[in-house]
Design goal:
Blueprint (H helix, E strand, L loop, with lengths): L12 E3 H13 L5 H13 L1 E3 L14 E6 L4 E8 L10 E3 L3 H6 L7 E5 L5 E10 L7
Parallel strand pairs: 1-2, 4-5
Antiparallel strand pairs: 3-4, 3-7, 6-7
Length: 138
């Protein structure tokens, strides 16, 4: 049986201030988490950067709620992508410093990415839906 894996990673998009914050975060954890830091840095370097106002709403950004399918086992999951200090796996808040978090950032609804899991095995993550947090009233 032949499995089909995407050879190229899909185009991704990031908000300028989030890309800066994530780059700083990756540098700060480089010694403790070299693999995730490298993956995140690579994603930032290949992303198309936008201002927050210009970012399409169907792109996974920080604080987004993301529904995705792990194609390795068919499991559908719904998570919120957060910074490490807000992570709570039981509440569905996944840190950007996890392989799944680093893999989902910047993807658009309908995109898939082949991404390494914690054990280094490639698995496809497919984004089903993206929703943004409600904006606070000024």
């Amino acid at each position: 049986m032949t499995t089909r894996k995407p050879r190229r990673r899909p185009s991704i998009h990031m908000i300028d201030v989030e890309a800066d914050a994530l780059a700083e975060l990756a540098v700060s954890v480089e010694k403790r988490m070299p693999d995730v830091a490298a993956l995140l840095t690579d994603e930032i370097s290949r992303a198309t950067i936008h201002t927050a106002a210009a970012m399409p709403r169907d792109i996974v950004t920080m604080s987004s709620r993301v529904d995705f399918i792990d194609e390795a086992n068919g499991a559908a999951r719904s998570i919120q992508l957060v910074y490490p200090h807000d992570a709570d796996i039981a509440a569905g808040r996944i840190s950007i410093l996890t392989p799944i978090g680093a893999g989902l950032i910047g993807l658009r609804r309908g995109q898939s990415i082949s991404w390494p899991d914690r054990d280094g095995r490639e698995r496809a993550l497919s984004v089903v839906d993206v929703s943004q947090p409600a904006k606070a009233a000024s």
